[in-house]
């Protein structure tokens, strides 16, 4: 199963300058729980935004740079190559950025989307649009603002129809 996992604002905003636009500790915990012990596929910029590789996950980094290597992750040069590297009984999670999500949208089986209830005009990276004609919302869990979360958000799980 190939799952896109992301947190996006009301207008599909993902981030700015290779960083998130919000801090949602409960979403980080959920991301860790869902992706641990699985393959995570990402672009080079997303990988480089981490201070260290994320524990208990196999990192597969897609880059056009043929000289990019030995970085604590498997390095590939296409989405197809990334998926081939991830062949096992473990699930595959695509974790960004925007261009990688676009590439993976056609092959994804599921979307785990944290919809952040806010708009972020200075965003420079976006989650791709997707149609309810192709995707069905199967669960949602609302989370309000609180002392640790500046924005309300909803966990949404979508599956391909």
Structure description:
It catalyses: (6S)-5,6,7,8-tetrahydrofolate + NADP(+) = 7,8-dihydrofolate + NADPH + H(+). Keywords: NADP, One-carbon metabolism, Oxidoreductase. By secondary structure, the protein is an alpha/beta fold. It has one domain: 3-Layer(aba) Sandwich (Dihydrofolate Reductase, subunit A). It contains 4 helices and 11 strands, in the order βββαβαββαβαββββ. The chain has helices at about 25-35, 45-50, 80-85, 100-105; strands at about 1-10, 15, 20, 40-45, 60, 75, 90-95, 110-115, 125, 135-145, 155-160. The chain has an 8-stranded mixed beta sheet with strand order 6-5-4-7-1-8-11-10, with helices on both faces. A 3-stranded antiparallel beta sheet has the order 3-2-9, with no helix packed on it.
